[in-house]
Amino acid sequence: MERTILHFDGDSFFASIEQAMDYRLRGKPIVTGAERGAATALSIEAKRLGLYRGMPMKEIRERCPDIVVVNSNYTAYSVYARRMYAIVRRYTPLVEEYSIDECFADITGLEHAYSMTYEQIALMIKHDLEASLGITFGVGMGPSKVIAKIGSKHNKPAGFTPIARELIPAFLEKVPIGSVWGIGRAMTLTLSALGITTALQFAQKDEAWLREHKIAKPYREIWYELRGGFTKQLALEPDQIPGSIIKTRTFSPPSKDKAFVFAQLSKNIERACAKARGVGAHAREVGVMLKSQDFLYRNREVPLSLPTNDPMIILGALRKVFAEMFVPNILYRATGVSLRSLVHESALPQDLFGASAKASEQVAILSAVDTLNRRYGSQTVHLASSLKAVQHREPDRQKKRKVAQVKLSVEQRKKTIDLPFLGRVH
Amino acid sequence: MVHGKAASSRKPHTLRKLGHVQAGFASPADEELADTITVGEYLIRNKNASYLLEVEGDSMQGAGILSGDLVIFERGKEPKVGDIVIALLEDGYTIKYLRKKQGKLYLEAANPTYPNLYPKQGEIVGVVVATFRSYT
Ligand SMILES: [Mg+2]
Fold first, then answer.
1. How far is B112 from chain A (nearest CA, A)?
2. Sign, CA torsion B11/B28/B30/B26
3. Residues from chain B contacting residue A24 (CB–CB below 8 Å)
4. Tally of structural domains, chain A
5. CA separation for the pair A242, A279 (Å, rounded)
6. Which of A278, B68, B73, B102 could form a disulfide with B126 if both were Cys (CB 3.0 to 4.6 A apart)?
7. B30–chain A nearest CA distance, Å
8. How many CA atoms lie within 13 A of A378 on its CB side?
């Protein structure tokens, strides 16, 4: 499935926070960083006076004697930053806290959940941020982080710029190569020596050209994203990844049919894998549980040679183990699976230009499966090995009990609530 | 230059909520049954949009809000008529009831010595969700 990535960037973040916290500063040119002797942030009004970041305070005061210069208040800025991340996280767990005034969010597949277009979802989050914090944000939307970041820079302040795949070239034409995220001064010089001055010129090169000029991997990734691909994963906070994902299900009547019990297990594996894909987690170990009629449990753990969330691979790894665990002629009433030792996909080695074409084909298939199941109900599309379980109708149609559970790692975020103090009220 | 104070960093406040005290002693048994509440979470609904202001003056004394009290307001919350709101007017923040008469919104103090306000400029920035007072 094509990714939809958002990038949020607080406009003149530090200066805007100072203005939000002291109403007397609103609409006025203000500069932060007095303690450093140079401007760390400027309000929009100050930028209009031609002042810039890093400008020495002495020069600023000479040019604009009436300007308000304040000390940086990093405690307040980080309170606002944490609020920004928390607000975005209300809409999707896939949030990268990129910097004190920026974050990325992956909203892929959420149109259905919200019955809204991606544009509407982005604007809803933007509105929530601006209403809650009292400062404006530039928001970019695109198929990758690199493109989303180009969008958020566009049309400042308070802009919203969705860049659909077909619009990318028109945008890149106007973007100097040096202002693409991740391309520093040295690389800008290298590329301009090769005749590349715009992002579009770089994007239009082919793989042979990249090899010929020995373009290093980080820049190949940027090139790939400028062409509309997605490869730079979101770096999620460690506690956004569950410790394990467990899916169990009791069936009735109990069964001694080996194929049927395996189908139940297969179904659980599919559901657990779908959950894992939803949060970008890959398992390094999988546990199997079989429960018999007389409540005898059998458990086995199986290490996986490569971290995965592909049900086919996990089924393959479990087939033999299941055959060993399954005892003929006793009645089973439940199966369960747990995906453990989860790692986030951003932590996996990337193999963009190497072999694994087959793996990426499989990723495409699985994300198509996820889309269909989200849209038409889970188990619309399933593995053939799960068929017997999917077709099985419970005779006594017991209330749909939700036995699925996701264990989140226990580490608690700090429980204090920091409230910015805005002054006096009459 | 004057500007807002640093965000206050408050420690977690978890207090025992005692049963209703009926003009006598709260029995230990009552206390056993009682819940624990976290004061911050009790007072605050949407913590990412909540801010503090300190009350100055007696314009809201009829609503039990006195000078020196702290109020928590929620920014961006849609104000309803009858809510206690925070408005930002030319001369600063004001805390008042939001009222409506003949289709026209205005601000009313909870103190008869204050006139109603029909501001031409300014905006309602949020709705008061809690107030608190320290006696120490
Ligand atoms: Mg910014």
1. 15
2. negative
3. 2-3
4. 3
5. 9
6. B73
7. 27
8. 9
What ipTM does this complex have? Answer: 0.78
Q: Are residues A45 and A24 in the same domain?
A: yes
B-chain residue closest to A88, CA distance: B48
**Domains identified in chain B and CATH numbers:** 2-10+46-132 (2.10.109.10)
Q: Which residues pair with A424 in a beta bridge?
A: B54
**Is A86 close to B48, i.e. CB distance below 8 A?**
yes
Q: Is A177 found in the same domain as A63?
A: no
pLDDT of res. B35: 53
For residue range A9-42, what is the model confidence (pLDDT) as tens digits?
A: 999 999 999 999 999 999 999 999 999 899 999 9
| Beta-carbon count within 10 A of B17 CB | 11
CA triple A263-A265-A269, angle to 5 deg: 115
pLDDT digits (tens, 9 = 90+) for A121-174: 999 999 999 999 999 999 999 999 999 999 999 988 999 999 999 999 999 999
Of the candidates A20, A7, A17, the one whose C-alpha atom is nearest the C-alpha of residue A40 is A17
Cα dist from A165 to A160, A193, A265, B74, whole Å? 16, 28, 40, 39
pTM, full prediction: 0.68
Nearest to B54 among A18, A25, A424 (CB): A424
Q: What is the domain extent for residue A294?
A: 245-425
Backbone angles phi, psi at B86, to 5 degrees: -110, 125
The residue among A198, A224, A240 that closes a domain is A240
pLDDT above 90: residue B17: no
